[in-house]
Amino acid sequence: MTQGGSETGITRAAALGDDLRARRGLVRPEDVGFVPEDGRRVAGLRRTEVMVFPS
Predict the structure, then answer these.
(1) What's phi and psi for 2, nearest 5 deg?
(2) Phi, psi angle pair for 5, to nearest 5°
(3) pLDDT score for 6
């Protein structure tokens, strides 16, 4: 067991993070009404942009 949690918990957290990043990358900002900006290092929506939408 690792300090602060089990390895399974860490693996699950990493998998969840990977999945969320992949899903954000599928949607372009202009697809949902945001003005595209220069200087994006990663394709897709930013976390703050995702938070604007209701779940």
Answers:
(1) -95, 160
(2) 155, 175
(3) 64
* CB-based contact 34:49 (threshold 8 Å): yes
What single letter denotes the amino acid at residue 40? Answer: R
Are the C-beta atoms of residues 40 and 25 closer than 8 Å to each other? no
CA distances to 11, 20, 33, 34 from 29, rounded to whole Å, are: 30, 16, 7, 5
Q: How far apart are CA 5 and CA 16, in angstroms?
A: 16
pTM: 0.61
At residue 22, the pLDDT reads: 92
